[in-house]
Write a structure and sequence with these properties.
The chain folds into 3 domains: 253 residues, Glutamine Phosphoribosylpyrophosphate, subunit 1, domain 1; 179 residues, Rossmann fold; 158 residues, Rossmann fold, CATH 3.40.50. It is of the alpha/beta class. The strands form 5 sheets. The chain has an 8-stranded antiparallel beta sheet. A 6-stranded antiparallel beta sheet has the order 5-6-7-8-12-13. It has 20 helices and 26 strands. The mean pLDDT is 93. The N and C termini lie close together (11 Å). Helix 4 crosses helix 5. The structure holds 2-deoxy-2-amino glucitol-6-phosphate. The site of 2-deoxy-2-amino glucitol-6-phosphate (AGP) has 15 residues, from helix 11.
Length: 631
Amino acid sequence: MCGIIGIITNKKRNLVPELISSLRNLEYRGHDSTGIAVIDGNTLKRIRRVGAPSDVLEEGEVSRELGIELRPFSIGIGHNRWATHGKPSERNAHPHVDCENKIAIVHNGTILNYEILKKALMLEGHVFSSDTDTEVVAHLIEQGIKDGKSFLDAFLESITLLEGSFGLAVCSVDSPDRILIAKRGSPLSFGIGKDSLVVASSANAILPHTNTFITLEDGEYAELVSENDGVRYSIGNFVDKSIDIAKNPTVIENFSLDELSKGEYGSFMEKEVHEQPSVLRTTILGRYDTKAGDAVLGGLIDYEDKLATAKQILTVACGTAHNASQVGGVLIETLAGIPVRSEIASEFRYKKIPLSPKRVVLFAVSQSGETADTLESVKEAKRKGYETFGIVNVVGSSIAKMVDAGVYTRAGIEIGVASTKAFISQLGIFYLLALKLARERGMTAPEGQDFISELEEMPEHIQKVLQNIEEQIRDYAKKCVAQNIQTINFLGRGIHVPVSNEAALKFKELTYIEAGSYPLGELKHGPMAIIDEKTLSVVLMPKDEVFALSKNSIEQIRSKGGDLLIITDVEGAKELEGSGLNLLVIPTLKNPLFYPLIEIVPLQLFAYYYSRELGHNVDKPRNLAKSVTVE
Ligand code: AGP
């Protein structure tokens, strides 16, 4: 939800190319409009455009338009917007400025009381030039300075007046040696280079500059200052008024810039889908003991007693992470016999769940670790006394920090807005967690060993699926687009239900076409009414214990004239031979509980190719942002 960048350096140069490339790395956070502001001598210059930086910002052209092509300077800030207040337009794009065009601000979050503040400022004579909530902050600081305060004091006083969430970066022509930043509820970190400090709303935009960074906590602010002999920073807290807070920087080792590029692929999504075999390998690496037939989840080691005695598991998550949690729920209930309740985070917070926190453990699942609904759920759960654990991808993210303990999913940086490899990695953790819980509740060591050996084989199976079905699924997606399919449903039973949900989510976000997902047996209780020759039903039915029932249901669909695509395994395909059905065949697995890891792959590709065929941007679907940091 919006991406912020700010660079301050004591080695003056044209920072425009660095600002633009950072904004490109942040496009997944918002891409409806974008802008840059720089301090050139004693003038604040700004450029704003509607569209994504990679489409509308070109280094040379922006430098020329700002009139700084050959002039070195030391401060610049930039922003990618995901509109909340005010439609996407140049007028509403950040950076926003005060009346005198001296103070520029970029903001990620939502200022809830902006209308009251705006009215008061207008009475003081301030003139607003956008419909955004953000602009009030520039005018509040301007007013503070007018009232005789320093830039820093005016900034601090202004942010204490704000209700809502913010990650902010502000610069002023009258204090051209510093950027002020602050965080409450929206992620914000700054990187520490030799001659530069780089603030951004995600490490993705910092890592090309430096692998050493500090992440601010809620209530913290920082002054990033450039001096003759280098750069310095100081951190304080605007709530408890503490100053000079010492924080240890995070250092990301073994980071490769390749993670931020598409490499040989045409899109990040395509790359991320193909990374899934290696991601799963990395997720599970070193996290099981083959001899003992057990999982070894280092992050949860201090809580083994809690897990061993837990009577119920709660998961909270959104979107894809919720779908992964539901697969996890089936795994845990089947293998360990512990009831699992998977809650959508935006609902969980406001629900009265009649569960005592005693003997109930809560897992918050999130790729970004910044999703506001999930983060707020964790806060609420902690307040109610639950033990909270995280299954999170981004190291050091807000959720990772807030939970009592947790496991990182190690998916690497996921840039495509449609989550793919993060899903596989979340499933990887759930397989291990289910194993751990099951071993504590009667699963024998040999059974655990068999489970591990099957899990170890899964990356290879995913690889095979990618190799064998990609062409078929591409052609099939093309055919469906040509056929002008009006309605699509993803269906399955048991563990295949949450996979169907994930398939429908991928399809909707990428194609902008409404897609349903139902337990297959539920079709006859209502949704069957929509089946006709313009509908496609994609059914997940490898040969497992519910295969015969599923066969029955697909005949019902066929009899109503509906089109069908059946995703089944080699054994299932043998049984369906001669049926005249469209089959997409995946490998047969010994343990049917592992099918989600391979059956989702063709469905990700189906959504991908369908979307491409329609000419959509697969990495940046309309109206969506990668990290949803507003509630
Ligand atoms: C998935 O394709 C979506 N982009 C979305 O549903 C996402 O999974 C959801 O917003 C949760 O994000 P998180 O995992 O970062 O918390």
